[in-house]
Write a structure and sequence with these properties.
Belongs to the TRAFAC class OBG-HflX-like GTPase superfamily. OBG GTPase family. YchF/OLA1 subfamily. Its cofactor is Mg(2+). This protein is an alpha/beta fold. The chain has a domain of 64 residues: Roll (Ubiquitin-like (UB roll)), CATH 3.10.20. Strands 2-4-1-5-6-7 form a 6-stranded mixed β-sheet, sandwiched between helices. α1 packs parallel to α8 and α5 packs antiparallel against α6. The chain is flat and about 65 Å long. Bound molecules: guanosine-5'-diphosphate (GDP). The site of guanosine-5'-diphosphate has 15 residues, from α1 and α8.
């Protein structure tokens, strides 16, 4: 499954955030015998629609979609030259499908900042520079080889030209993601900066309501998505019973934990969406790539469902709730029959028909 690598300079709150994430680990909660990698946190993607479906269908269980985070320790200035844990660090990022940078905004004289001062723009720049330099090295090695190959084989010219164009972008200091470069033709080179980025700003709890400051930070990373949270508070929230957690959240002016937002935004950043199924046993969100067709969606439940796909009976979540039950939705003519070409939409509640 797809993973998001968590990166950031030392002492920005990565471990604090990651530990909070792993306390939320749905593998640990639901699959007691699953092998849990120490540096991977699998968290549920909160979806309030599931509880409402469970009510309508009398489901015994709710199973949310999940998103996996990998803790990638060790970036410092000079990582692209093998400083610190440089090479291992870069290899770990290469294996991730998206990059989540944690940035320190909180002020705490007791926590040393590696660069001597809290400066979010500078920290973003430091990490970007290491990743850009690593990609430039990859391209410098690849381009002469691709040039030779493309003289004999026209197909290789597509990759060669994309590589040269990417090199020009990187020379300006921009990541390929920020420049909007299409990752597809470059895929073979497993570049780092074509991956989608998202940003977690670790701010003091009492700054979470300072919208002027948050807007300034958001502008630093746009069009990438930004999440604002206080890692320390998040790690406390996770230990509290629901009622006390709600009180603590309210006391810092928030209506949902930052970790929930992170799971939702991370899921979206990976290019994923869900569709829903419901019955007396469970209400469940299934993960598909944006743009998946009905048979592909069926295949996520079971490969036989995809192979034997006949049709999908689909009703939009909001219409289903308005009707009050599947039977009522059918009577109203709101349950559509969709075929092989149908592209799944967010909020589709689905029953597949298939041959076995
Ligand atoms: P990492 O090196 O990026 O993994 O950072 P850690 O999570 O180990 O945090 C470094 C130090 O900063 C620890 O002493 C944390 O308790 C502290 N810290 C982490 N997040 C926050 C925060 O949101 N506010 C404050 N004041 N301290 C924090």
């Amino acid at each position: 499954s797809l993973t998001i690598g968590i990166v950031g300079l030392p002492n920005v709150g990565k471990s604090t955030l990651f530990n909070a994430l792993t306390k939320n680990d749905v593998l640990a909660a639901n699959y007691p015998f699953a092998t849990i990698e120490p540096n991977v946190g699998v968290v549920g993607v909160p979806d309030p629609r599931l509880a409402r479906l469970a009510e309508v269908f009398g489901s015994q269980k709710i199973i949310p979609a999940t998103v996996s985070f990998v803790d990638i320790a060790g970036i410092v200035r000079g990582a692209s030259e093998g400083q610190g844990l440089g090479n291992k660090f870069l290899a770990n990022i290469r294996e991730s499908d998206a990059i989540c940078q944690v940035i320190r905004v909180f002020t705490d004289p007791d926590v040393v900042h590696v660069e001597g001062k809290v400066d979010p723009a500078d920290d973003i720049e430091t990490i970007n520079t290491e990743l850009v330099l690593a990609d430039m090295q990859t391209l410098e090695k690849a381009i002469p080889r691709l040039e030779k190959e493309s003289r004999k084989d026209k197909d290789r010219k597509v990759l060669h030209d994309a590589a040269v164009a990417a090199q020009e972008v990187l020379n300006t200091g921009k990541t390929l993601f920020a420049a909007g470069v299409d990752p597809e033709p470059l895929r073979e080179l497993t570049l780092l900066t074509t991956k989608p980025f998202l940003y977690v700003f670790n701010v003091d709890a009492d700054e979470l309501a300072n919208t002027a400051q948050l807007d300034e930070l958001r502008a630093l990373v746009a069009p990438a998505e930004a999440i604002f949270l206080d890692a320390q508070t998040e790690s406390e929230l996770i230990e509290l019973p629901a009622e006390e957690a709600a009180e603590l959240l309210a006391s810092i002016g928030q209506d949902e934990p930052g970790l929930d937002q992170l799971a939702q935004v991370g899921f979206r950043t990976l290019g994923l969406q869900t569709y829903l199924t419901a019955g007396p046993k469970e209400s469940r969100a299934w993960t598909i790539p944006v743009g998946a067709t009905a048979p592909e969606a069926a295949g996520v439940i079971h490969t036989d469902f995809q192979r034997g796909f006949i049709k999908a009976e689909i009703v939009g979540f909001d219409q289903l709730m308005e009707a009050g039950s599947m039977a009522a939705a059918k009577t109203k003519g709101w349950v559509r029959i969709e075929g092989k070409e149908y592209v799944m939409q967010d909020g589709d509640v689905v029953e597949f028909r298939f041959n076995v």
